[in-house]
Specification:
By secondary structure, this protein is α+β, with helices and mostly antiparallel strands. It has a single domain, classed as Heat Shock Protein 90, CATH 3.30.565. Helices cover about 35% and strands about 25% of the residues. It has 4 helices and 5 strands; from the N terminus they run E-H-H-E-E-H-H-E-E. It has a 5-stranded antiparallel β-sheet with strand order 1-2-3-5-4, covered by helices on one side. It is globular.
Length: about 140
Amino acid sequence: MEASSQKILFPSNSDTIAEVEKLVQSLCEKYDIPEDAFGNILIALTEAVNNAIYHGNKSNPDKKVTIEYLINQDILKFVVSDEGDGFDYQNLPDPTLPENITKIGGRGIFIIHQLADKVEFKNNGKTVEIQFQIPVHAA
């Protein structure tokens, strides 16, 4: 299969999440991605986009979230970037520790790490690459 990629700009508002869901659905149908991978991809990508909108861009409608995807043989990779200041992704509180269990929030990045095969932060935390190792072929 020939590699495929696309970059899409989204506004920093809650409507973007519905657009991300449509994107994941479309990609999974187009590339015949197994049903059991769909949920992991959807949750990980929406968590990353939520973080970009609310934490990175602080819900500023003038700032954009960029989603780029690359599909190549058995890899589906998403690159999500925001226009914020970045964050210290190496020193996040562990949401599974007793003192953090009852806290609201703080689980998105943990969830992304659990669902994806590879997660890498770049650009001072303003960009996250989320990779899934799955059989991909045009339907």
